[in-house]
Write a structure and sequence with these properties.
The protein has about 475 residues and is an alpha/beta fold. Helix content is about 40%, strand content about 15%. Helix 11 packs across helix 16 and helix 16 packs across helix 17. Bound molecules: uridine-5'-diphosphate-xylopyranose (UDX).
Length: about 475
C-alpha cells in the first residue's frame, strides 16, 4: 500500500532546477528555455533571487514552469545594495551557494527531487554544488558562441592580453580588429570584475555534463564547430525567444516574461496606426547608460530621419532626453519606459531596429526578420555588431567621431541606409532568411530541436 501511495504521489518527470544570472538579459533566455523543457515533459523550476522574485508578478509564470528562490545576499535592494560589482559577485556566490544547497535538500525530501542543475555559465559555483550532490550539471551560455569562444581563448592564455597585434585570428571566426573584440578585451583594464566573471565561465566547464549555447547551429556553425573540438558535449539550443514566434501551432504564448521594469502597454496600439515598415524601433536594453551628449545626438539624429520613432528609454534615462524633443516630435515619436520587445519586433510597422546589440536583442531581431543599426556600448555587444554587419549582413554599424560620440549625422546616415534604398532591401532579405533558418532549427528535425531532445532524453534516462 505504501508503495502504491508513493507511486500516486511521486512526480516521475525528471526535474531541472534553472539558476539564471540575476539580470534581465540572462533571465529572459533561460526562462524561455525552461519553458521549452517543460513543454518536452520535464519538470522545470526557475529560481531567481529573492529580491527579483519580489518585483515580479506571479502570473508571469504560465506554461508549466514553477518558481523558487535563492539569495544573492542582497535580499532588500539587489545589486544596488552592494558596494561594487566585485562585492555583489562575492555576495552572490556565498549566499547563492548556501541557499542552492538548501533548495536541493528541500526538494530531496519532496515528491520531485532535483535531477539536473541548469545554471548560467556566469555562476560556475552552481556546478560545484550540483556535483557535491551527484546531480547533472548543465552550463547555459547566454551569449553568442563566438563571444564565448573568444573568452575561452583568453581564459586559456591563447590571447596575449592586452591585445596589441591585430587582426586577431581565432579558428572559425573572421579576422577581428580591436573594436570587434568584446569590450573587456579591447578596452584594457575596463570592468575587471566583469572580465573575471566572463572568463570564470571556463574555470570548471570541463566538469559540466552539458554545454548548452544560446544560439542555433546555422547562425554560427564555424564557431560552434571550433568550440566543440575543445569543450564538449556542446549543444546549440536556441533561439530562446517565445515559442509563439517559432513553433507552428502555438498561437498565443504571451505569459512568458519576467520583466524587471514596469511595462508600458501603449506601444502596440501606437504601432498599429503606422504603415508597414515605417517605424524605427530604438532600444539599448536593460543596462546601458548613454552620456547626456550622446542622448542629445541620438534624439536629434532620430528626428532628422523624419521616420516614425518608437524609443525605449528606461525611467532612469528619461531626464537625459533633450528639452523640446517630445513636443517637437509630436505623434512622430513614442517614448516608452519598457515594452514587450519581441512583440514590437514582430510588428509589421517596424522597419528597422536601432540597437545596442545585446545578444538577446540581436538574436530576437534576426529571428523576427528585422534589419538593424548597431550601436554597441560594451561587453559582448561589439562582437555581435561585427557579425550583424559583416557576417550575417543584416545591418550597419555606426562609427564614432573623433570625440568618441556617434553624431546625429552618422545616426541619420545609418538609419537611412537600412530603411531606404537597395542596400536596405538586401539586409531585409537577409534578415528574412535568418528568420526562416531560426524557425527551421527549432522545428522537428532541426538542429536545435535535435539537441534539445538529446538533452531531455539524457536527463530523463539518468534521473534518480
Ligand atoms: C545584457 C548584456 O548587455 C548583453 O549584451 C548580454 O548578451 C546579455 O546581458 P542587455 O543589455 O539587457 O543584456 O541586452 P539584451 O541581451 O538585448 O537583453 C535585453 C532583453 O530585454 C531582451 O530579451 C529584450 O527583448 C528585453 N527587452 C528590452 C524588453 O523586453 N523590453 C524592452 O523595452 C527592452
Amino acid at each position: 500500500r505504501e508503495r502504491e501511495e508513493e507511486m500516486e504521489t511521486k512526480d516521475y518527470r525528471a526535474h531541472v532546477l534553472a539558476i539564471p544570472y540575476p539580470s534581465q538579459g540572462h533571465i529572459n533566455p533561460m526562462l524561455q528555455f525552461s519553458k521549452r523543457l517543460s513543454s518536452k515533459g520535464l519538470k522545470a523550476t526557475f529560481a531567481t533571487t529573492l529580491f527579483i522574485s519580489q518585483t515580479m508578478k506571479p502570473e508571469s509564470f504560465g506554461s508549466g514552469v514553477e518558481m523558487d528562490t535563492i539569495s544573492d545576499g542582497c535580499d532588500e535592494g539587489g545589486f544596488s545594495e552592494a558596494d561594487s560589482v566585485d562585492d555583489y559577485l562575492k555576495r552572490l556566490e556565498v549566499a547563492g551557494s548556501k541557499t542552492l544547497v538548501e533548495l536541493i535538500r528541500k526538494y530531496k525530501t519532496s515528491s520531485h527531487p532535483i535531477d539536473c542543475i541548469l545554471y548560467d555559465a556566469f555562476l560556475p559555483w552552481a556546478l560545484d554544488v550540483a556535483k557535491q550532490f551527484g546531480l547533472i550539471g548543465a552550463a547555459f551560455f547566454t551569449q553568442a558562441c563566438v563571444v564565448n569562444y573568444i573568452y575561452y581563448y583568453a581564459y586559456h592564455g591563447r590571447l596575449s592580453l592586452p591585445v596589441s597585434s591585430v587582426p586577431v585570428s581565432i579558428p572559425g571566426l573572421p579576422l577581428l580588429q580591436l573594436r570587434d573584440m568584446p569590450s573587456f578585451i579591447y578596452v584594457a583594464g575596463s570592468y575587471p570584475s566583469y572580465f573575471e566573471l566572463v572568463l570564470s565561465q571556463f574555470s570548471n566547464a570541463d566538469k559540466a555534463d552539458f554545454i548548452l549555447v544560446n544560439t542555433f547551429y546555422e547562425l554560427e556553425h564555424e564557431a560552434v564547430d571550433s568550440m566543440s573540438k575543445v569543450i564538449s558535449p556542446l549543444l546549440t539550443i536556441g533561439p530562446t525567444i517565445p515559442s509563439m514566434y517559432l513553433d507552428k501551432g502555438v498561437e498565443n504564448d504571451k505569459d512568458y516574461d519576467l520583466n524587471l521594469f514596469k511595462l508600458d502597454s501603449t506601444s502596440t496600439k501606437w504601432l498599429s496606426t503606422k504603415p508597414p515598415g515605417s517605424v524605427v524601433y530604438v532600444s539599448f536594453g536593460s543596462m546601458a547608460n548613454l552620456s547626456i551628449n550622446q542622448m542629445k545626438e541620438l534624439a536629434w539624429g532620430l528626428k532628422q530621419t523624419n521616420f516614425y520613432i518608437l524609443w525605449v528609454v528606461r525611467s532612469s534615462e528619461v531626464p537625459k532626453i533633450p528639452d523640446r524633443f517630445v513636443e517637437e516630435m509630436g505623434d512622430k515619436a513614442l517614448i516608452a519606459n519598457w515594452i514587450t520587445q519581441t512583440e514590437v519586433l514582430a510588428h509589421e510597422a517596424v522597419g528597422c531596429f536601432f540597437t545596442h546589440c545585446g545578444w538577446n536583442s540581436t538574436i530576437e531581431a534576426l529571428c523576427l526578420g528585422v534589419p538593424m543599426v548597431a550601436m554597441p556600448q560594451w561587453t559582448d555587444q561589439t562582437t555581435d555588431a561585427k557579425y550583424v554587419e559583416d557576417v550575417w549582413k543584416v545591418g550597419v554599424r555606426v562609427n564614432l567621431d573623433e570625440n568618441g560620440i556617434v553624431s546625429r549625422y552618422e545616426i541619420e546616415r545609418c538609419i537611412r541606409q537600412v530603411m531606404e534604398g537597395e542596400e536596405g532591401k538586401v539586409m531585409k532579405e537577409n534578415a528574412r532568411k535568418w528568420k526562416e533558418l531560426a524557425i527551421e532549427s527549432v522545428c522537428e528535425g532541426g538542429s536545435s530541436h535535435k539537441s534539445i531532445d538529446q538533452f531531455v532524453s539524457k536527463i530523463s534516462t539518468t534521473m534518480s
